[in-house]
Structure formats: structure tokens, C-alpha cells
Amino acid sequence: MENEIFTPLLEQFMTSPLVTWVKTFGPLAAGNGTNLDEYVALVDGVFLNQVMHQINPKSESQRVNKKVNNDASLRIHNLSILVKQIKFYYQETLQQLIMMSLPNVLIIGKNPFSGKY
After folding, report:
1. Through-space distance between the first and last CA atoms of the chain, rounded to whole angstroms
2. Which end of the chain is more exposed for a tag (fewer CB within 10 A), N or C?
3. Do 6 and 116 form a contact (C-beta atoms < 8 A)?
4. How large is the angle between the packed helices 2-14 and 35-43, nearest 10 degrees?
5. Backbone angles phi, psi at 57, to 5 degrees
């Protein structure tokens, strides 16, 4: 049941302008990756951290776990680093404070297929 609901949401998300923009930084999955492969590459946080490093190369780099292998704690770690890097970029480079609530990395990390953020 959840898979029947998630598949159209996944397709919609993977064709969104944000994902289309992120893909300009490079391929998300090796070879002919499916939408699911590309989505997993996003929620693992490795690729998004690489994108953030290209946007702000002067930021202090923290160790991102490149081999997540569906480990929730490693995924949470990577996404936490990403959120910190985004906050740092807004505060130090753009001189802006983020007023909106940020995604809950614990929810995304534990169950990236829930659709809850």
C-alpha cells in the first residue's frame, strides 16, 4: 500500500525543479540509475554535501560517510552536516538568518520513504 502511494510521489519529487537543479552538479546514481536509486543518493546526504561544498568551498569540511549502505545513523550524520553547512552559508556568506523550520533529519534519516520531513 505505501509503495503504491510513494511511487507517484517519488516520480513527482524527482522531476521537481530542485532535483533538476541538483542534477546539474553531476549524476546522482551510476549508470542508468532509476528514480529510486537517485532518491537514495539524495537522502544519503553524500551528494548533497558535495554540492554544498561546491557552493561554499571555504566552509570547514566535516567528515561525510560515503558508504551509508542504508544505515540510518550514518544517513542522519550526513544530513546533520548538510543542515549545519546550509545554516553556516546563510549566516556567514549571505548574512541572513533562516526563519523557517528546517527539515527534521532524524525523520528523514530513519525512514526516508515516509514522505514526512
Report:
1. 20
2. N
3. no
4. 80
5. -65, -20
* Among candidate residues 97, 79, 87, 1, the one with its CA nearest the CA of residue 40: 79
Tell me what pLDDT residue 1 has. Answer: 37
Residue with cell 516520480: 11
Q: Kindly state the helix (H) or strand (E) to which residue 55 belongs, with its residue range.
A: helix 46-55
Distance CA 74, CA 30 (A): 21
pLDDT in tens, 79-113: 999 999 999 999 989 999 889 998 889 998 888 88
pTM of the model as a whole: 0.83
Query: Cα(59)–Cα(85) distance, rounded to whole angstroms?
Result: 7
